[in-house]
Write a structure and sequence with these properties.
By secondary structure, the chain is of the alpha+beta class. It is built from 12 helices and 12 strands. The strands form 3 sheets. The protein has a 7-stranded antiparallel beta sheet with strand order 3-2-1-12-11-10-9, with helices on both faces. Strands 4-8-5 form a 3-stranded antiparallel beta sheet, covered by helices on one side. A hairpin with a 5-residue loop joins strand 9 and strand 10. Helix 3 runs parallel beside helix 8 and helix 3 packs across helix 9. The longest helix is centred in the first third of the chain and has 36 residues.
Length: 443
Amino acid sequence: MNKKKVRRKYKAKSNRRLAMLALAVLAAGAIVFAMAHRGCSGGEAAKDSTEDEGPLWSDTLTNASSAIPALKPMDREIENFMARNGIKGMQVAVMSHDSLLYAKGYGWADMERGEPMTPTSMMRIASASKLITAVAVMRMVEDGIIGLDSKVFGPKGILNDSIYTCSLADPHMTDITVDQLLMHAAGFGRGGGDPMFTMKDIVQRNKLKGAPGSEKLASLVLRRRLAYEPGKSRRYSNFGYLLLSLIIEKKSGKSYWEYVDSAVLQPSKAVNFRSGTNYYADRHFGEVKYYGPDSTLVEEYNGSGKMVERVYGGNDIKGLKGAGGWVASAPDLLRVVASIDGYEGVPDLLSGKSISLMAEADNEDKHSMTRGWAEIEADGSWVRTGTLSSSHAYIRLFPDGRCWAILTNSGNWRGARFSRDLSRLVSNLNARYAAKMPHRSLW
């Protein structure tokens, strides 16, 4: 072969290599661009179904979009509240009749990295996850997949696998219904500690080599006697909402995260929801850093004996599933509320009957807990709260159609009492600044 042919052959091969390299670079760039603009992190609840729908409403939300001169006094009140309570970062979103009026981040998403809180920063929503789980359950009820009166355990129960049936320590467990789980009336108490937050003790007590999965954990807890006969009383139960998560998985054939994403989050266009993670290194793109109420190290939840930060490894956040495992932004929480509030601005996912059932409180035993909502206030407001050592969530839908959502990335030892502080803050802000909100929708 002469030199000219060799050079032509070499040049052609080189050109092909350059072309392939260029295509690879373009593909990598497209992936990075998509992740940056969709908040994808590889988590189970990451979404790709909106790729062909153009810009998402969340793409336009910035703190600048909520910089309203008339609301500067409100900003100062929020910042003063944060300073008094040691809150590093907070997110506030306000909706009226399914229109998002206001969304703003205050303080830091990650103080050490100099990252400010934004309206779309994601953080743990704690027990506000129960509202999302309840919507998914009611969706299944409307689709005829399960009934509120469906039995959970026993030969004809939904969870009739041997891992459950062989563990039932109390004959009354076969009487438990789906509705009793929703209403915290299934009979589960906290004897032996809340199983969702005493994982280390469960591992040690049962001589396990690591943290059990959801099914194994359920089987261990079912070996405990009930605290009361199902339906006869109420005691707040995180474990009951884990069981609802397992029911969703059993009847849908999908993971809990996948079913909720397809049946609730995607239809409501709540785009910034992810399944929780346990460690800082595993956080999602766009997720904040969490700050505990103190710097005390605790033993890792899985029984390893390793000492860790309370907010990163002290508890199995992802293992909470429907009881408290979601990560989201305040505007996305309001997007779900807009899908179950009966107003016409955003199409509802549920019928009027189901929406009413979710907000129906049984006041005969002086409890106001409902199906998914935490309580119904005296003024008729629907409230959902959430508390972890790493974060707090507060949602309040007023009778006039205005709804506030607040999330923090900092824990507070006041716990449930801090939720009351957030309630007073929202009541005061709503009374003073509701009329100054702009007439628009950021969605």
